[in-house]
Known about the structure:
Elements: H1 3-20, H2 30-44, H3 48-61, H4 65-78, H5 81-98, H6 102-115, E1 120-126, E2 134-137, E3 140-141, E4 151-153, E5 156-163, E6 170-176, E7 182-187, E8 223-225, E9 228-230, H7 237-273, H8 282-318, E10 323-331, E11 335-342
Parallel strand pairs: 1-7
Antiparallel strand pairs: 1-4, 2-3, 2-5, 5-6, 8-10, 9-10, 10-11
Helix pairs in contact: 1-8, 2-3, 3-4, 4-5, 5-6, 7-8
Amino acid sequence: MTLVERSFAIILLAASTFLVQLPTAHAQSAEAEVLFRDGRKLIKAGKLQLGCDKLDASARLEPSIGTLLNLGDCREKLGDFASSWAAFRKAEAMSKRAGGDDKRQLEAQRRATQLEPRLSNLVIQVEQRVDGLTIKRDGELVDPAAWNTPVPVDPDTYTIVAEAPGFTPWKSAIAVDAKIKRRVVVVPKLTRIQVAPPVEVAPVLQPRPAEPVVPPPRAVEPVATITYRERPSMWTSPRKVSAVLAIAGLGAVGTGLYFGVHATSLQGRADDRCPLAACADPDGLRLNDEARTAARRANYLYAGGAGALAVATVIWLVGGPDETVITPTIGAREAGVSFAGRF
């Protein structure tokens, strides 16, 4: 591969890598919006548990400040103070990162601070660590950094399981009450599983095979060879198609960037008119719809551009020129021509 060929291939690969790292244009998805509205209706109807579950699903699908604030408020009404506190803290962090939303940031901070004296904490105290030790709480893996540390939890009964390769698993259930601010569960030293020693088996002697008889090498007559190499142009038909696809992919990426920036701008204007989740401003709703449309176009163009660049890269690498080698052969008793090539 010549310097020009390598340079073009590197440019295509770099463009594909850049496209993978582009941020996805953001706008509230339709599914998350429907779950949020259903949750609000259920809460107003007095069905707190069902409403909280809807809001929780919406936040997992696409977290937003408004959804987290409503989720924290709902969880607090149910007495799930740890979940409520976590939702408010997450809403506070999102508001701080977004900037320009001091009102909701301060509200989330205030609500979280009020909940802290009411939190119940669970401490999983590990007596002795062994290689490969894992601890799960209700089937979810607990990070080792959280061992021996008070962690806020909702009032409930939790099953703690400790496991390690070569050791007998340990299991215990502990109830956390809202009136108790700190519960400690001690994970004892695990008991090693006794393994029976392996049974030694005497090796079976195999007969030594006879050495094969190798005939003497045949004398090779001297052969005169002359090699001619034919190297065509690097711009084969597949590579011309690759270049066209690369230009089209870069154009799609550029257009996607425009729609992504436009979607972000429209969403910001919509949030200014409708800072809360419930909005009756027609202009705010229109701006939100336009932001979703621009975001979808940007994502389609990103995907199309990425596909075009990926296909262009593959075609460029596999569509290189064929190289043909013509070798006349002249010997003492024979003469001929051999052909070889790279396809």
